[in-house]
């Protein structure tokens, strides 16, 4: 089919070349013959082991078979490791402040990354800064790793006029930053997966981006969407540098599966060997890693990226971690899992604890209690400063809520003409403002928007 497509006169020369290369490269491998019917099953054949270097106490493994990876771990730059733990230390402080502010009614919604800091930051540290990231929503640590300003983060969460990515029109935590190569998060689960496959195919065909990679994050719940399968098939057939990181909510000791997509346990989502078992089925190099071991996550992702870029193909990383917080501010996880069990995971298996212990144990220690106190104080002060500022900032001009839905017809963006549904909605709002605008409630509310009621025409 690809050859037929490639012969279409409408395709450009480079597209024809890319299609025909793909068609040549992909083929069904020849099968060995068997005189008995062999039934395969990923669970029965033995589960995929999880790569781990740091134990729960932060000690490097002494397993002789792991020595080459232990050597690699020892070669990781100390400044990088220290910065990883600094960002991981900042994340729960940010989460705690924003989570409570939602409870106080100061923001509308929030999602924490408690317990998953090792997976998020360990992987973030393995990417290049211009790798294109398609995240789900729990990966703010990737942005923090890339130096995304806290002022922009707060502008998004508080929907202020300074929210450059979503202009105040998205729920909190739907970050995006062109400068940081972080594609804006969208709520419908799984949509990022085929988008990432398309982006990887585009990267493959973009001169000058030969060494870049696409990175796509998803929770295991999102992989229950059909989009996951479409994306993996597309990526494996079309190629392009791409690393899928699936956060599998599971106790990282690998003894039990205790993960949830909100309240749906993994037992109701798949019967195979996690998500990792699906990768080989699509011909994709796949690795399972202990997501609470930031060092193993870093090394596994670095290797995954190397394979993806050198082979111009997708690679799948499954990180086994555990969400110790509630799903979001709209959730109370005690309704479907025992708070005692969660507390015990927190105590027994913290990614922060593991990396801290490891850094403290190095011949030249890279971490100390004094440094941790300093990082916590500085982070908290910086977060609170931007929090207070954003809370007082105006919301975007009222008219902004109607724009950017359809492509501008006039081509000059800001001043473009609105399409009929927006024009009608705007007229309706104007009518309501005319009717109620001077009442106490409406007046107070309208003053929160940049330019007040007059800015309804600003678009
Ligand atoms: C298509 C779609 N269905 C349902 C939802 C509601 N929803 C939001 S998050 C979520 C759970 C996702 O779980 P997972 O992918 O494992 O990520 P986690 O929240 O555990 O990090 C669900 C069901 C949605 N946003 N989109």
State the main characteristics:
DH_E1, 16 helices, EC 1.2.4.4, binds thiamine diphosphate, branched-chain 2-oxo acid dehydrogenase activity, 459 residues, Rossmann fold, seven-stranded parallel β-sheet, alpha/beta, 2 domains, oxidoreductase, two-stranded antiparallel sheet, Alpha-ketoacid_DH_E1_comp
Write a brief structural summary.
The chain folds into two domains: 50-392, 3-Layer(aba) Sandwich (Rossmann fold); 398-457, no CATH class. Helices cover 42% and strands 8% of the residues.
Please give a structural write-up.
One of its GO terms (molecular function) is branched-chain 2-oxo acid dehydrogenase activity. This protein has helices spanning 2-7, 13-25, 67-75, 78-103, 117-124, 140-145, 150-157, 192-204, 226-238, 278-281, 294-311, 339-348, 351-361, 369-392, 420-436, 440-446, and strands at 50-51, 132-134, 182-183, 214-219, 242-249, 260-261, 264-265, 285-290, 314-321. The protein is built from 16 helices and nine strands. With 459 residues, the protein is an alpha/beta fold. Strands 1-8-9-5-4-2-3 form a seven-stranded parallel β-sheet, sandwiched between helices. The chain has a two-stranded antiparallel ribbon with strand order 6-7. The chain has two domains: 50-392, 3-Layer(aba) Sandwich (Rossmann fold); 398-457, no CATH class. The structure holds thiamine diphosphate (TPP).
